[in-house]
UniProtKB/TrEMBL annotation, chain A:
Biological process annotations from GO: autophagosome assembly; autophagy of mitochondrion; protein modification by small protein conjugation
Protein name as catalogued: Ubiquitin-like-conjugating enzyme ATG10
PANTHER family for the chain: UBIQUITIN-LIKE-CONJUGATING ENZYME ATG10
Keywords: Autophagy, Transferase, Ubl conjugation pathway
Family in the record: Belongs to the ATG10 family.
GO terms under cellular component: cytosol
GO MF assignments: Atg12 conjugating enzyme activity
One Pfam family recorded for the sequence: Autophagy_act_C
Claim: Transferase is one of the keywords in the record: yes
Domain of life of the organism encoding this protein: Eukaryota
Native source organism of the sequence: Hibiscus syriacus (Rose of Sharon)
From TrEMBL, chain B:
Domain Autophagy protein ATG5 alpha-helical bundle region: 114-169
Pfam families cross-referenced by the UniProt entry: ATG5_HBR, ATG5_UblA
Keyword Nucleotide-binding: no
Family: Belongs to the ATG5 family.
Record protein name field: Autophagy protein 5
InterPro entries: Atg5 (IPR007239), ATG5_HBR (IPR048940), Atg5_HR (IPR042526), ATG5_UblA (IPR048939), Atg5_UblA_dom_sf (IPR042527)
Domain Autophagy protein ATG5 UblA, residue spans: 7-100
GO cellular component, one term: phagophore
Highest classification ranks of the organism: Eukaryota, Viridiplantae, Streptophyta, Embryophyta, Tracheophyta
Length: 227, 238
């Protein structure tokens, strides 16, 4: 397949190959994150599926950032060396500790990378919840996202993130709308002057894709492209 | 064109019962009888339904949802499709239950009102556009007023307005490249010597819903009740 004439999409089989390559590369990056797990699942278990179907899963990732107000308040009250988030320190004024613990609840996120047979690209599904399992609505999730993502969201809220039924779990999850994916992924690869072969593109597809979409959640993917 | 007009004018008679947990005054209110357009969505009927039951509802915030025989109904599936899927032996009127409280958020995607339904529709439209053209540009580039006009045409069942906006944005039938190949075959099989009208075939994007039934039955009215959405799958194609 000639990369120049490629439309940026993947077949279901390509997705599986790419998914395995991605999860291997992810582990080798040693980024401090747990590994991506391939979950074997079928959308229609009553049909004998000739191919293995499934999706990639990365769960219980802590995405909450300390509330900025709290940081200001704490730094105003603390005059010196006390670190933020040091509950055992006797010198920290009780008010500051209380303020932090009541606002700074830990939020977690589950990410699933699912193949869309309509758009022929990977789609990022996610859900966010508190440490007690309570699901978070979109406006609360937004507060955990980096500032630039919130700006994108406020510009085009519904075209960017939508709430839909998870294709395998059949429950409401959020997803990043995939309609522009093929185009920007193609640009990403074509801008590489080395014009790689399709096999290489496939190996790097999901890593490159996630390095872009993961940034929405402040997840930076450190990687070096080795040609 | 005829088929499209037929579908657009179709309606399902509904007999809507208020769920017993929401009845605060006895005797319980009689069910509401509403004719719902096939090309429509159940939550859009809220302004018609609420007046029937508003006096008996418990206090609080209303988020409307429906169930059929205990199965919460997915509000983003058009009414006609829901009916055809769950009631193949048509029940007239279709008896469904309305709730204004206790939205099952772990099963159904939240629906806060007309806007939610509209965006779900626009997203489906994007999917259809993608299948037809390989991209969603025509939908993304639609002006706000066109989007609104398209949505209003669905809400009001106005086929002409819908066709006006959709053809402007290339959302009508996709020309089939096999039209010219079909024509000679049609002439042979029909045995007609004078086919002056061009037989034009076209393609439309479809979303196919398949419900699997695991038990045998002889008649449609013996079909076991659908008690979960687990057995429903859908796929979009052209």
């Amino acid at each position: 397949m000639d990369v120049l004439h490629w439309d940026g999409t993947l077949s279901a089989k390509d997705f599986r190959v790419g998914a395995f390559a991605f999860s291997q590369k992810w582990e080798s990056l040693n980024s401090g994150f747990p590994p991506w797990v391939w979950v074997l699942s079928s959308k229609h278990p009553w049909l004998a599926s000739p191919e293995e179907e499934g999706y990639l899963s990365l769960e219980k990732i802590c995405i909450s950032r300390p509330n900025e107000e709290d940081i200001d308040q704490i730094s105003q009250i603390d005059t010196g060396e006390e670190e933020i988030g040091c509950p055992g320190n006797e010198d920290v004024i009780d008010d500051a500790t209380l303020v932090q613990s009541s606002h700074h609840e830990l939020h977690y996120c589950d990410f699933h990378i699912v193949y869309s047979s309509t758009f022929r690209v990977p789609v990022l599904y996610f859900r966010s919840y508190c440490s007690d399992g309570r699901p978070l609505p979109l406006d609360e999730i937004e507060k955990d996202l980096p500032a630039c993502s919130s700006k994108e969201l406020s510009k085009s809220k519904w075209t960017f993130i939508t709430q839909e039924e998870h294709p395998y779990l059949k429950r409401p999850w959020f997803k990043l709308h995939p309609c522009g994916t093929a185009e920007w992924i193609k640009l990403l690869f074509l801008s590489d002057t080395a014009k790689p072969k399709f096999e290489v593109v496939l190996e790097l597809y999901l890593l490159s894709w996630f390095s872009v979409v993961g940034q929405m959640f402040g997840l930076r993917t450190p990687f070096k492209i080795s040609n | 064109m005829e088929a499209q007009k037929f579908v657009w004018e179709g309606a399902i008679p509904l007999q809507i019962h208020l769920h017993e947990s929401q009845v605060t005054a006895l005797p319980p209110p009689p069910p509401a009888l509403i004719l719902a357009p096939r090309i429509g969505y159940l939550p859009l009927l809220a302004p018609l339904i609420k007046p029937y039951f508003s006096s008996t509802l418990p206090p609080g915030v209303d988020t409307i949802w429906f169930d059929y025989n205990g199965l919460p109904l997915k509000w983003y599936i058009p009414t006609g499709v829901l009916f055809d899927l769950l009631c193949p032996e048509p029940e007239r009127p279709w008896n469904i239950t309305v709730h204004f409280r206790g939205f099952p958020g772990n099963v159904l995607i939240p629906c806060e009102g007309e806007d939610c339904v509209k965006w779900s529709f626009i997203n489906s439209l994007k999917e259809a556009a993608y299948i037809m053209n390989g991209n969603c540009k025509n939908v993304m580039n639609m002006s706000q007023s066109d989007q609104l006009e398209l949505w209003n045409s669905i809400m009001n069942g106005n086929l002409e307005a819908y066709q006006r906006v959709s053809s402007k944005h290339k959302l009508s039938t996709v020309d089939d490249e096999y039209t010219s190949l079909c024509l000679p075959k049609a002439q042979q099989s029909l045995g007609e010597t004078n086919l002056t009208a061009q037989v034009k075939t076209g393609k439309v994007p479809v979303r196919l819903y398949v419900l699997s039934i695991r038990e045998d039955f002889d008649d449609l009215d013996e079909m076991p009740l659908v008690d979960s959405w687990r057995d429903l799958l859908h796929k979009s194609t052209i």
